[in-house]
TrEMBL record:
Keyword Plastid attributed: no
Cofactor(s) needed: Mg(2+)
InterPro entries on file: DHNTPase (IPR003564), NUDIX_hydrolase-like_dom_sf (IPR015797), NUDIX_hydrolase_CS (IPR020084), NUDIX_hydrolase_dom (IPR000086), Nudix_hydrolase_domain (IPR051325)
Record keywords: Hydrolase
Highest taxon in the source lineage: Bacteria
Hydrolase keyword on record: yes
Coiled coil: none
SUPFAM superfamilies reported in the protein's UniProt record: Nudix (SSF55811)
Protein name as catalogued: Dihydroneopterin triphosphate diphosphatase
Domain spans labelled Nudix hydrolase: 14-153
Alphabetized Gene3D superfamilies for the sequence: Nucleoside Triphosphate Pyrophosphohydrolase (3.90.79.10)
Length: 157
């Protein structure tokens, strides 16, 4: 019975494994940034929690649909798995979403390279902007989001 209770309580909290998907448009050399509903001064790329039974890639595909209504197939070459994950400290004001004493999250990085910009259909965010990679780095409060843009978009510049 105790393990059932523990399992039930754990379902109430977010998993501390997530994905980050940086969306880049080749035609304009710009990055899509999204404004969070729960923290309007917080701009970021597509992110999401890995759900039970999902791989990081499955999560990236699901989150792209949920957050910007972009349908990507499992074998799309536009979605690049960076094969990189980082552990970071969860911002204190977001920790209530996680189990007690969970202070860190592991984030798996992806890059989605689009031929051109598109107009996202937002369901989880207040607004979007297509901006230069440098501007995206300045906009986000997430140091990992900034680092992923720096590493995978600005690497050739």
């Amino acid at each position: 019975m105790r393990s059932d209770l523990t399992a039930f309580l754990m379902m109430q909290y977010k998993n501390n494994q997530s994905v980050l998907v940086v969306i880049y448009a080749k035609d304009t050399n710009r990055v899509l940034m999204l404004q969070r509903q729960d923290a309007p001064d917080f701009w970021q790329s597509v992110t999401g929690t890995i759900e039970s039974g999902e791989t990081p890639k499955n999560t990236a595909i699901r989150e792209l649909w949920e957050e910007v209504r972009l349908e990507i197939s499992e074998n799309s070459t536009a979605l690049f798995d960076c094969k990189e994950s980082i552990e970071f400290e969860i911002f204190p004001h977001f920790r209530y979403k996680y189990a007690p004493n969970v202070m860190h999250c592991r984030e798996h990085w992806f890059l989605l390279v689009m031929e051109q910009e598109f107009e996202p259909v937002l369901s989880e965010h207040l607004a979007y902007q297509w901006v230069s990679p440098e501007q995206a780095i300045q906009m986000t409060k997430s140091s990992n989001n900034a680092e992923a843009i720096r590493k995978y978009i600005l690497k050739d510049k």
